[in-house]
Amino acid sequence: MPTVTFLGHAGVSVHARAFHLLADPWLAPTGAFIGAWHQYPRNDHLDTDRLLAADWVAVSHEHLDHFDPWVIDRLPQRTRILIPRYPGPAFRERMAEAAGSRQVIEIEPWEKFPLDNRGSWITVIPELSPMCHDAAFLVVADGRGVLHCNDARLTAAQARRAKHLAGGRLDLMALQTSGASWHPICYEYPAEEMAKVSMDKRVSKLRAAQRLVRQTQPELAVPFAGPPCFLDGEVDHLNWVLGQRDGAFCDPEVSTEWLREHLPGQRWDYFKPGDSVDLDTGEVVRDPVSAEFSFADDERPAYLKQYAEDRKELIEGVLAEYPVPGPDLFDRFVAHFEHLGTLSDYFLRQIAMLVRFEITGPNGGVWDVDFSPDGLAVGEASPDVRPHYRITTAGRWLDSVLTGRMAWEDLLISFRLSLYRDPDVYNDYLVGLLKHANAPALNAVEAYETGRDESERITVEWSGGCYDIPRYCPHAGEDLSVGAVIRDGQVHCLAHNFAFDLATGACVNARAANLTSRRVS
């Protein structure tokens, strides 16, 4: 009886004997992230009235392609909303505002929350590091186990624990294979370097999925959760990332082909909006409208052209809601960052760099924020000072961040900006400070990173030598015994693509603690 219907992107509908649950439904006809992202393929043919008549709606995190206020606003008052309990209040507060009088329930990690009186339940599995407020859902419906990974990069140990909790069997495991982030596509890379970085990230994402599924062995593994497409004129040039052969993001068809080749003993399938699978019988029913859609490169231009035309007025309506900022923009920018500078000395020490903001349009300017262990300073940019990071965006997008209408991470994910860094090293703490912007969440990261037990170690081999390294990645705790590859003298953690030099332990592509590796023979 339990049936899973795919809604597009990361959205699923679970129909059981006694309840109907939605997880991460993204259905808004205005897309997400200032109208920049749109569902690909489109899912606006689905019967939303029937879908939204749900008993439960589970939302994994606050990214707007998962947390859709358009959906929340149209739910019946009786629908109860389930969210993970994270260290900071931001997601809870945003959801409470969108939910109105509807009940919002926070679930503790690994807590079995009952969905009916017949033994069905749901739990949340957050990423190990509180730097990332992402979580998977484990749903047991009428005795069938569904691991809905969302954007969460679970460790192998977490996925195996989920399988154990579900009774030793996962009937369906859906996991993201398209990491649609602002790196590298919003960075100012030469064409050759952009192609190389894009392909490296694409393959790394697929390898991570392969390893996690190999460790978990679900009955059916499903690549899902992206990518989106881009319909507005400011961002539609980014649709090159959808290329099946060399795009930065893998569509579910390409992901499934790659994973079938590299893990042939596993059953794989992908689903389009409206497709469903019966977890008792394994029967798949394909949606007749979605069946007409093809991910093929030669069919994409015409498809996106029509899609953009259909949504043109809706996108224009979204953009009209973001007016030109007033002359006090710089003063509010200063106040905003001075406040951020008071939240965590630990983060200031880890950032330790100068970030330049080039704000275009009326009342914009070029402004520097110096994140120093001694404190934070904001001022007009000096031509004599070289920044480590440069962020360029329009004043009206910045204004919405300063007013609290939009989070920094929403702006980053909108791709309505460009970035440059020199040296080309990712600083997770800068992004962490901007996206969390509250002391409890930042304190949780500090406690996690400074309180880890690093005594458990493993031995790896490279080029005839043996190296002693910690079992768990110093960035976010991935189990390197199953979640890493060794190549070119480096340990590549597959969870977040951080790379560490075996000889020195230094992270070569991001700001992270030393691996403390040492050669033993």
UniProtKB/TrEMBL annotation:
Keyword Ligase attributed: no
Residues covered by the Rieske domain: 472-521
Keywords: 2Fe-2S, Iron, Iron-sulfur, Metal-binding
InterPro entries (UniProt xref): RibonucZ/Hydroxyglut_hydro, Rieske_2Fe-2S, Rieske_2Fe-2S_sf, UPF0173_UPF0282_UlaG_hydrolase
PROSITE patterns: RIESKE
Any Pfam family the entry gives: Rieske
Keyword Iron appears in the UniProt entry: yes
UniProt name for this protein: MBL fold metallo-hydrolase
Organism: Actinomadura violacea
